[in-house]
């Protein structure tokens, strides 16, 4: 359990997420994230020089990835500090925030910045020499599509891991998955109510190039599909005999987010409201059995709760990274909670899945929900490639 790591109130942001091959498809994810963070810091009157370390979370290669961490630090205006690049698939944000909290807890630094980003669009294609191949034919890889479709250890695509969990636990139907997907869409609509009042609590626009001469702002999520009960019912399962249609799983996206992690004293200096205190309490991790990725969310959550010294009954807000509806159904069963009552205001199932910043946006939304509720404990948990999971518990006072 942590006792010294805090997040200043509203010292965080998430850009809107754009569906892949949308308006952010041609932006370098590192440059875009740094530019967004720099504009956000200017708007908040935060000097990047206050940060002593930067964690850059990113999973898909971009031009100059070799320099990723220190380059991002320099781009935001903190060219005197080092940066660490952390690629942990969909638990990237959770891991970055945990690493920053551990550094604060142990006195390595007082002020760290976590910057998470990814561009699923136009992913890189890598080739390796292969002199032993027929005619010296190269080995090639599409960074995103090939890895979504095949786990080199589990030997199956990601959607199959969710279907494997459904078969293992039993009792989960397509109708169940459709009902959860529709409920998550309803919850996302709550975030759009009153001219996106909830999202405007934390969302900061991303500036992108429409062409060589014209720039524009992405101010709201792009590419979220309208969802109805009738439409979900008509969609066939992606895998024959399975329970997940395209409507009950997430979509790739592009975007970024940032979170300040610091000491209690520094948090007061950077907070928008010194009466609101956000403490990072604990981190949990897990690895499920081979090709059963959706199962990792529950043991990670249980570890985080145990380390925080609380029970799930003490938690006011739960958020998840839920690439497949079965993730939430399994978690609800394991924690004995109502699947329809968590993930208020949205989740990655609906607004998309840029990987690096996905969990970060969920954690930010969870904090804002807790503030609205007058404080309390929040639990974030989510799965990640390689049948892994990561969770975080925070307390808002």
TrEMBL record:
Catalytic residue positions: 90, 353, 383
InterPro entries: Thiolase, Thiolase-like, Thiolase_C, Thiolase_N
Thiolase N-terminal domain ranges (all copies): 15-264
Superkingdom classification of source: Bacteria
Annotated Thiolase C-terminal domain residues: 279-395
Gene3D superfamilies: 3.40.47.10
Keywords: Acyltransferase, Transferase
EC number: 2.3.1.9
Gene Ontology MF terms: acetyl-CoA C-acetyltransferase activity
Family designation: Belongs to the thiolase-like superfamily. Thiolase family.
Protein's name according to its UniProt entry: acetyl-CoA C-acetyltransferase
């Amino acid at each position: 359990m942590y006792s010294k790591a805090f997040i200043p109130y509203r010292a965080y942001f998430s850009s809107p997420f754009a569906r892949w091959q949308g308006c952010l498809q041609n932006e370098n994810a590192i440059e875009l994230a740094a530019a967004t963070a720099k504009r956000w810091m200017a708007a908040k009157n935060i000097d990047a020089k206050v940060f002593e370390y930067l964690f850059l979370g990113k999973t898909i290669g971009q031009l100059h990835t070799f320099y990723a961490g220190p380059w991002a630090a320099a781009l935001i205006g903190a060219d005197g500090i080092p940066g660490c690049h952390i690629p942990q698939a969909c638990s990237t944000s959770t891991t970055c925030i945990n690493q920053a909290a551990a550094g604060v807890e142990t006195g390595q630094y007082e002020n760290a910045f976590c910057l998470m980003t990814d561009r699923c669009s136009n992913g890189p294609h890598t080739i390796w020499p292969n002199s032993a191949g027929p005619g010296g034919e190269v080995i090639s890889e599409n960074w995103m599509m090939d890895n979504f479709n095949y786990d080199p250890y589990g030997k199956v695509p990601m959607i199959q891991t969710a279907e494997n969990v459904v078969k293992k636990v039993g009792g989960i139907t397509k109708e169940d998955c459709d009902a959860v997907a529709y409920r998550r869409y309803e919850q996302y609509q709550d975030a759009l109510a009153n001219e996106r009042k909830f999202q405007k609590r934390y969302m900061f626009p991303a500036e992108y190039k429409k062409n060589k001469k014209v720039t524009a702002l992405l101010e709201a999520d792009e590419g979220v599909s309208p969802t109805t009960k009738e439409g979900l019912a008509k969609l066939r399962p992606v895998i024959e005999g399975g329970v997940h249609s395209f409507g009950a799983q997430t979509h790739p996206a592009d975007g970024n987010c940032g979170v300040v992690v610091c000491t209690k004293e520094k948090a007061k200096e950077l907070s928008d409201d010194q009466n609101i205190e956000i403490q990072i309490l604990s981190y949990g991790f897990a690895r499920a059995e081979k090709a059963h990725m959706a199962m990792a969310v529950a043991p990670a959550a249980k570890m985080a709760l145990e380390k925080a010294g609380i029970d799930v009954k003490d938690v006011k807000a739960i958020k998840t990274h839920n690439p497949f509806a079965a993730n939430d159904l399994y978690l609800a069963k394991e924690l004995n909670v109502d699947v329809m009552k968590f993930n208020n205001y949205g989740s990655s199932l609906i607004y998309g899945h840029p990987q690096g910043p996905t969990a970060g946006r969920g954690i930010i939304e969870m904090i804002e929900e807790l503030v609205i509720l007058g404080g309390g404990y929040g639990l974030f948990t989510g799965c990640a490639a390689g049948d892994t999971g990561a969770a975080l518990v925070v307390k808002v006072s």
